[in-house]
Records
---
Amino acid sequence: MITFDFHSHILPGADHGARDREESRRILCTAKQAGIETIAATPHFYPHRHHVEGFLKRREEAYARLTEIRATEDVPEILLGAEVLACPGIDNMSGLDRLTLDGTQILLLEMPFVAAELTDELFETVERLIDECGYTVFMAHPNRYPDFCVDRMVAMGAKLQLNLEDICSFKEGRRAKRWVREGLVYAVGSDVHHDEKIYKSLKKADKVVSAALDRINDPLHA
Ligand SMILES: [Fe+2]
């Protein structure tokens, strides 16, 4: 079964995810009851809007708000990361290396949703992140993008992080299954913002990604 949630917005007030400590607590307790042992807290980082220093401070403060919950409730272990919006030239942004997951080289990248922004310049940036900067790039929720985008990311060496919602959806489930079959899936995330009911789909998702479970539950060694 899936025990590692690679993508979540559970830190209270860190982004437009969990609004307060109680919402975080509810999500975390539900995740644990559903079988999640480790959860990556990945608040949004928008390079055109945020500075690394300010982002890390906000993330730290949000994490500190969970100290009591972590000490007294049965919740998953929380690792700190970020969901970084890919922008052309982001490889030159100072402090990018501080946005990786839990001190690893793993960078969770969200591609832009506007097709016109999926430019050669952007893909070349991702290529440099992988080849020159040495990041292990995980592409967040590939189901939200056209095939050419996913194919190009995979060809450069990006690993796919599927969202529970997509794995279980009628429309996107087929693509998810194909990527699992092709050995491209390295992580699964709830991408939970507010609604802990997403963890109800874990059991169904388990079946779809069963061939990739070893990797999904140990993504830090990808
Ligand atoms: Fe997200």
---
Amino acid sequence: MSGDTQNNCFNNEFICVPETDLPRIVVVGGGFAGLALIKRLKNKPVQLVLIDKGNHNQFLPLLYQVATSGIEPDSIVFPFRKIFRNYKNILFRMAEVKSVNVNLKQLVTDIGSIDYDYLVIATGSMTNFFGNKNIEMKGLGLKSVADALDIRSHLLQNLEKAVISCDEKEKEKRGSVVIVGGGPAGVEMAGALAEFKRYVLPEDYPELKNTSMKVYIVEASGKLLGEMPEKLSARTLGYLTNMGVEVILGTVVEDYNGDEVKLNNSVTINASALIWTAGIKGSLFLGIENKVINKQKRIIVDRRNRIAGFEDVFAIGDVAIMKTREYPNGHPMVAQVAIQQGRNLADNLLAITNSKTCNDFVYKDKGSLATIGKKKAVASIYKLKFSGFFAWILWSFIHLMSIIGVRNRLLIGLNWILSYLSYDKGDRVIIRKFNYFD
Ligand SMILES: Cc1cc2nc3c(=O)[nH]c(=O)nc-3n(C[C@H](O)[C@H](O)[C@H](O)COP(=O)(O)OP(=O)(O)OC[C@H]3O[C@@H](n4cnc5c(N)ncnc54)[C@H](O)[C@@H]3O)c2cc1C
């Protein structure tokens, strides 16, 4: 990349980045997709610039365990600068991208602008409340470690408030949680909360032992884990019901005021917490033409993750939607798709910069897993569909191996072993106030 202003550290308008003759690839977002691409391009003849609004990568599949006091937040995050210690070709800049000018090939961030030769948008997704302002204001999303800590604090604060109330109805409301969305995140959250209620609550809050606090899961479609085969959805329903979770299917949550959840069948549930896992949309910044953005705010890309009309702008992971014959509605928004797209695009970028041929993206579906609680999980792997203890062991092993960093793996492994032996949860502390509803 050659540009007059790009190495001027005293110019406020541009981010300070050394000049180079190598092609500059600017990657926005260091999640599963962005990081997979960067790892593949480690020490290759390109200048990589990662821009992320946070200074760390987050392992989102275990957020629910942070939210339910199962593991420490530190064990599912990893700082970018530590990951890149042995990289010779990457610069990290913590900044939020605000817009792109594709004609000038320039990104605008909250700390200045930067020029690129190739731009990779890997900004993931965010919670979609489908325009319901009340739910957005009073409900809790689960898309980051900060969200998980908000949920943890809110749930624990509610229990502290339940203890000091003399009104049985108030106690019940304070302890009740409604989870909206019966996908993997909702199901895993419901299972963890049911275990918390059954094993931790009587020990930590003996005064609340006889209060009828409830965990509800409300799903608009007729089944839980909609992407899974019928048999595994039914098994999940059985597990949750046996654990005391009230599963409400074929029902839509219409409104929430912080105390009452209104369902579309005129039923009202009293609950001081509503956790929304029912929808996501692409996390976008300005400057991308509307004609390449779908209704879910995802960027429409071709088989090589290119945005229509541009040779040098790409989108990967949750923010991208690629329609193929096998996936006419796009690939599932899961980590494996993001990782595989990141790797394929890395290979293609090297091919482009060496005037070689690029390859289309082909998704290799390795299957899906969800855990519902201790010794309870469901697995659909190739033609194998199974549930129970072995599915749970497999889920635990795959998740542990996917965590970045030996320290994090050890921390999580130790937490899981302790909680396997005792059903106890490790991290029941309120470290931030989260009571703006009251
Ligand atoms: C609670 C939960 C549970 C999940 N469980 C599973 C599971 O069990 N299995 C599975 O396969 N998938 C699971 N997923 C989905 C999986 O996490 C996503 O598919 C995956 O994270 C997508 O990767 P990504 O790189 O596209 O985005 P992300 O991993 O979300 O990364 C996006 C990055 O972009 C950064 N960013 C966003 N906007 C900007 C901006 N404007 N400027 C700068 N930086 C920006 C963010 O800080 C973030 O680091 C789960 C997701 C959630 C939320």
